[in-house]
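During the second half of the funding period, the structural biology subgroup turned its attention to how the target accommodates small molecules. The most pressing case was iron/sulfur cluster, which had performed well in the primary screen but for which no bound structure existed. We therefore specified the complex as follows and requested a full 3D prediction, including the ligand pose.
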Amino acid sequence: MRFVDEFRQQPLAQGLARALARAAERLPRPIQIMEVCGGHTHAIFRFGLHDLLPPQVRLIHGPGCPVCVTPRSRVEQAIAIARQPGVILTCFGDMLRVPGRRTSLLGARAEGADVRMVYSALDALEIARAHPDRQVVWFAIGFETTIPGNAMAALRARGMGLRNFYLLTSQVLLPPALRAILDAPDVRVDAFIGPGHVSTIIGTEPYRFVAEEYGRPVVISGFEPLDLLQSILMIVRQLVEGRAEVEVQYRRAVPPRGNPIALRAMAEVFRPVTQEWRGLGVLPESGLGLRPEFAEMDADRAFPDIAPGELPDPRACACGEILRGVRTPPECPVFGTGCTPEHPLGACMVSPEGACAAYYRYRPHRDGREGAPAAATPASGAAAATFAAGRAAPGGESR
Ligand code: SF4
């Protein structure tokens, strides 16, 4: 298959792993690299890339799973809106099973609410067009990757003169999250693997502060094993050479200035707002809400009595620390016991981009100390076998 097989060639991966091992020997100390994007997390596990890393390089997981960072209070609000008479609540499929206070959107559907899974905001718009007598609410979550689609749906709804289409927004911006992580006292991040999909929209400029203010390299990466190994090598070379720059490994998809059409649509419909994140708390100007000109589509206004109250995660759930890179999923006391994909306690176990789901699916019995010396033998037979197995594994693509 073109543009996939080329990036999964095992001999090239082994060559990159050897180059990485050589470069890492020149690091002054062990390093921690955060892969920000949940799609990267799953690709790393799916292809067993931890086993190809030298002992000086450890990967930690970041907040780049849109379902995971949606606060529980907002999920609870969506459930409450879905229960209103005449409402059709539409959402992505992985949002359905995220637990609220007592149940999930899927549970609410089982109890009679009209909750429908769709693949995009435009699908939700089509439902609104087909049901003019119902109030159709789109649960508009996500990062810069999905926000342009939400903007296009709002613009199209206005063009069609629809008056029954609403957005319940929980839209988040990645650069403020990186700043929050860098400012946090409880985790050390030496460099970032930058998100590929978000960067197709925003380009490279919004990451410049990471390099210039914090002195940390950012390498924007693709999602195939060779992409990720090359990105890690580029980061290690920057650190060895004392550089901190924003580099793009994923050049086949990421233009330096991003996607101006998508950025224009986002700016036309949305404005920066203070946003609550699961794990990171409330961050100023870290989200996008509807502009006043689109207030008639704002679900918060249409359903004013269902305001989100405070609703922290269950005490046993360590999602917040996992989204900040402070802990790994096996360090959560209920990982794989009280919390499984069938019976999730937190969002990180539900979403296909969640770190807990990645651990559970690909290495449920490992201790989670990725990059620890015992696990790292570049180009070893075990790693090659893992890599080959990963190549054949189904699924694992991120949106
Ligand atoms: S394993 Fe479950 S309970 Fe633990 S952090 Fe992950 S999602 Fe939360």
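Two results from this model are relevant to the next phase. The first helix runs from residue 10 to 24. The first strand starts at residue 31 and ends at 37.
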